[in-house]
Structure formats: C-alpha cells, structure tokens
Design brief:
By secondary structure, the protein is an alpha+beta fold. It has helices at 75-79, 82-85, 119-131, 184-196, 209-223, 230-234, 243-264, and strands at residues 5-11, 14-22, 62-65, 70-73, 88-96, 105-113, 133-141, 144-153, 156-162.
Length: 305
C-alpha cells in the first residue's frame, strides 16, 4: 500500500506522527461504454462551451456560480486556505464508542506509525481499547475540513471520516406514525424466527455473486471468440487535430472486418476456463489527450453478442 497523506495525531502535549492509507478497495470488474454495433469505445471530452476547444485536465479550474456571476478558484487559491496547510489530526474529545451512530461513518483509513519509536502510537491505541472510547478528531484532507473517529482494529488504529450532522437526512415517513398492534404471540414467533437464523458474523463467508458470474460470462465470450481486438478498436491517436477521428474510424473499420472474418471461420467450442483478472479501473473520466497506450489483450465484448 502507498500512503496518501502524512500528519500527526495531536491531543494535549502528545504528538503521534502517522501515515494514512486507504483501508478499502473496489473489486468490481471494470466495464467501458462502447458502440453496440461495432464495439468502438465511447469517450467523453472536456470541451469549453465558449471557445469550443477540448481542455486538458491541467488547465481545468474549479468555480462557484451564484446564478449571476462566476468566481474561478485555481489550485493556488485553494492551497492558500489555512486549513489546507494543516497536517494535524486534532483530537477534540473522547466519547463512549456506542455514542457514535454508524450512519455517520464514511471512508475508512489505516494509520501507521511514522517515527522510529512507536511508543506514543501504542499508548494511544491501548488507551482507546482499555477505556472503550472513540476519539473524535478534526483534520483537513484533499481540500476539505473533515470530522473523523479514531478507532482500534486489531493492532492498528483506523481513522473513519464522519459525515457532518446536516448531511444525514431525516427519516420523516408518515406511514410510521400509524398505530400498529403487535400481539404477544406474533412477537414470540418473530423472535423464534430470528433465533433460528442466529449466528456469528464472518464476512469471509460471503461473496459477490454478481461479480463472479460477470467474470464467468466474460471468460465464456472470450472462449467463443466473441470479442473485438482492443488495439485495433481503440487505436493509437494522432496528436494532430483532426487525425484522431480519422485514425479511430480506420481502426473501427479494420476491427469490424477482422471480427467478421473470425466469425465466418467458425466459432470455438465454449468452456469455463479460468477467470480473468478484474483489470484496470475505468478511464471514463480521464481526458482523451492523456490516455495511456491501448492494451493488447482483447477483453472488450459487444453487448448482447
């Protein structure tokens, strides 16, 4: 894992240097949008509405619009804010762990000691465990002020970002105001049903069936030859203006012709085979000018093929 942030937990005169790591990751199979007819990749461009030019990501700034005027905020403007310069995870208070409503939990990060001596880190971790307390903290990450909770998971401390109170919607449903009569027998039977399903939770016992079936479907299509050539379909774009469209159209034409030749020669027998890897994450939001060279593996399938 690679640290995404470095700072220090600060409470009183105690300072605990730490590195911050993302604790979770997405395992979904990455799918792209393509033209159903020929498998050509659908890409989005960041185009300026005034001059009509395609804008590179490095030239894009953020802005606030109040309905009448627009204020442009550059990276330099945002970096000048005092809160963004802070590298402290400031402990505000220690609260009983059961007082933190799980609905407030957002992202989870691991905290690794970032000093030669881990004594202060272990001391804080042990204190949280022994007192059954959660440290409520405030810090700045990625140009935002954050509220967080320091908790313990095994031998490591975790930092869970919390939603602000006004980000949680109120559950105001008129149907819940209706009076409902529950008999003692119904409650007894319901409790018995719960007891029959009672168990200790083990997340390792559960799998994402949809993703497993999707991988099997992709592998089956590859075994049957129902795929288009990635390199020829996406092509290598010319930097000259106007050359991109011509190169892409030519690549699509050749890809369609090659795919037809494959099908006319007879399809291969199907088989389960090994499951393909999940591959790289989607590049839908990246500008076309900066996309990496196309992969050689033919893994893009046509919808409904």
């Amino acid at each position: 894992m690679r640290a995404i942030w470095k700072g220090a937990i600060a409470f009183g005169l105690v300072n605990v240097p730490v590195k911050v790591y993302a604790a979770t990751e997405d395992h979904d199979v990455s799918l792209h949008q393509v033209h159903e007819k020929d498998g050509g990749r659908i890409r989005y461009q960041r185009r300026c509405e005034i001059c009509g030019e395609v804008v590179e990501y490095k030239d894009i700034a953020k802005a606030y619009d109040d309905g009448e005027q627009t204020v442009v905020l550059t990276d330099e403007d945002l970096a000048s804010l005092p809160v963004e310069k802070s590298r402290e995870i400031d402990v505000v208070e220690f609260v009983p762990s059961d007082q933190v409503d799980p609905i407030l939990f957002d992202r989870t990060y691991y905290l690794e000691p970032d000093s030669k001596s881990t004594k202060s880190y272990v001391l804080l971790r042990r204190t949280l465990e022994d007192t059954d307390r959660t440290a409520i903290v405030q810090f700045s990450l990625r140009q935002k002020s954050r509220l967080g909770a320091l908790r313990v998971r095994g031998d490591v401390m975790t930092l869970q970002t919390l939603l602000w109170e006004d980000e949680v919607r109120e559950a105001a449903f008129p149907s819940l105001d209706e009076k409902v009569r529950i008999s003692a027998k119904e409650l007894e039977m319901s409790s018995a049903l719960v007891e029959s399903f009672s168990s200790d939770f083990n997340p390792a016992e559960f799998t994402d069936d949809y993703q497993e079936q999707l991988k099997t479907l992709i592998e089956a299509k590859l075994e049957k030859g129902e795929a288009v050539d990635t390199d020829e379909t996406f092509g290598v774009e010319d930097e000259e203006e106007g050359g991109k469209v011509l190169d892409l159209m030519e690549a699509l034409r050749r890809s369609v012709e090659k795919n037809r030749d494959k099908k006319s020669g007879g399809s291969k027998s199907s088989g389960s085979g090994t499951r393909p890897s999940s591959g790289t994450r989607s590049e839908e939001d990246k500008p076309a000018e900066k996309k990496p060279a196309a992969r050689k593996t033919a893994t893009k399938t046509r919808k409904g093929a």
